[in-house]
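Is zinc ion placement plausible here? Inputs below.
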Amino acid sequence: MNSPSRKIRLDQYTSIEVKHLLKDLNNKWGVILPVGCTEQHGPYLPIGCDTDIARKAAENLALNLLEKDGYRALVLPDFSYTPSPGAEWTTGTVSVGFDFLGTGLSEVIKGALRTKWEFIVIVNAHGHNHGRCIEASMAGGSGAFGKQIPIIVVNIYDFISNIEHFGLNCGSHGGEFEISLYHYYYKEYKFNDFTINDDVISIKPPNIFGLDIEKRSFNGIISTKPPNLKRSLEKSNKIGKIIDKNLIETVIGNLDIYYESW
Ligand SMILES: [Zn+2]
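Reply from A.M.:
I modeled the complex. Tokens:
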């Protein structure tokens, strides 16, 4: 598995090669769209954190699909300009409006549907994208873009409940879950040696919106406690494997339901 000789990104193929792949009648072929953001992620993680996680999760999903019969997928170029409300003014963040995201996702799906893919998976790693991803998938899945195929949205953070037994204080942004998963996907990434002063904020309401991110976070990390870097890295391998497993099981399970009910 994970052999680098296997091309799993659409942009690595020629159009003729893709046509050839689509002649394979033993498998249903689809595309996977990674959706992330361009947003500050605290002192440990890069601004592209969510996009990087979505891309690598999508690539692993495509590779893992090769190990089983039934479905094959290529990874589309990722979608990384999305809304980061509350963090718009933090250094390096590029936040766009929700309508841009909604229109953008619809246009990408419409464009992709002109090729004879039989399913689309949206792998989303940024919380604020949730609603627009669902809307675009519902519209696409109902045939509103000219063709009816299943469009499955998988939100990586929805799997947090499946790793709770590891005792991480996951947080919702830049916290131990994302640190752990980032390390699993990007072993070569060097984490900053940075100590977070937990008295910066005396009241930490991670779920309160309408406040600037600085006022509800530890150095840009939204969590009930500052993250423990060491603990996050130690649990990384086990957590990453569970996320990859959850992802492929969710996708295959739902595609099976869709195609069996037809
Ligand atoms: Zn994130």
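Short version: The CA atoms of residues 119 and 194 lie 43 Å apart.
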